[in-house]
Amino acid sequence: MPGFDFRLRVFYEVSTRLSFTKAASRLNITQPAVSKHIQEMEHQLNVRLFSRNGNNIKLTPAGEIVHSYAAKIITAYSNLESELSQLSDISEGIIHIGASTTVAQTVLPKILALLKKNHPKINFTFVQGNTDFITQQVINETIDVAIVEGIKHNPQISYTPFLKDEIVLVTSSKTKLAKRGEIKASELYDIPLVMREAGAGTLEVILEALRAAGIAPAQLDIEIELESTIAIKQYLLYSEAASFLSVQSITNELKYQQLAIVDIEGLQILRDFQCIQLHGNTSKLISFFKRFCLSNHN
């Protein structure tokens, strides 16, 4: 029964976290709704699932048994959906897709073109913006699925790893910095830098890596902040500045020797591009799109 399926999911979230509040946040429903589902389940099974001591809860012996079976049922159900989805012939439909700026400009254009070529009856809308904006659109349910960069994790969002990426320090191939080829991390303080705007996932990853390397971002010489990778690359071509960019975004500029990578001793910035969707917002078309991205990103 569908109602019992969801109650089982609610119970599993509460029993795993031993918190009605955390379960409500995870499932994107209210805490009273969580309590109601648990009460209905206890009534249906005719057992108490939790014992309460003030604000703390713990599983009863019956709750321990139900938790064990719930974990197995939910895993089996997820595997069932996945296998059935793979057998499905997704031939038409509409899907609302989003992507953070770097992904939108580098990885997704090819994937979207191949999707339209191979599945012409699948229609899609596409929105791009920084990671914060795209994540909010997923939460608002104006986007079904998106690919973003960044290190923030919203409890309302389900994250699936998509593609590994490296962020490198880049400058015009004509600069003195380019001719050096490698610098020490401490020398970053002496280099004028072009950075992405606040809210960009790339910026979050960069700042986190710099702090881990002992570099204070507030003391860097930020020459200008720009909103897109394309704008940054154009700026670099006519300046002495440098910037941190995804290696995915500079393949042509490296090929034609317009930009050059400057290695930083002891510093490597790696990150994951991730598929995101709202918890509970699943469909055969969303699952198909995620598999299509994984199969066609190279």
Automatic annotation (TrEMBL):
**Record-linked Gene3D superfamilies:** 3.40.190.290, Winged helix-like DNA-binding domain superfamily/Winged helix DNA-binding domain
Domain annotation HTH lysR-type: ranges: 8-60
May I ask which residue range the UniProt record assigns to the signal sequence? none
Key words of the record: DNA-binding, Transcription, Transcription regulation
Q: Which Pfam families match?
A: HTH_1, LysR_substrate
Q: Which InterPro entries match?
A: LysR_HTH_N (IPR000847), LysR_subst-bd (IPR005119), WH-like_DNA-bd_sf (IPR036388), WH_DNA-bd_sf (IPR036390)
Q: Which residues form a coiled coil?
A: none
Task: Name the domain of life.
Answer: Bacteria
The family note in this entry says:
Belongs to the LysR transcriptional regulatory family.
Its name, as the record gives it, is LysR substrate-binding domain-containing protein
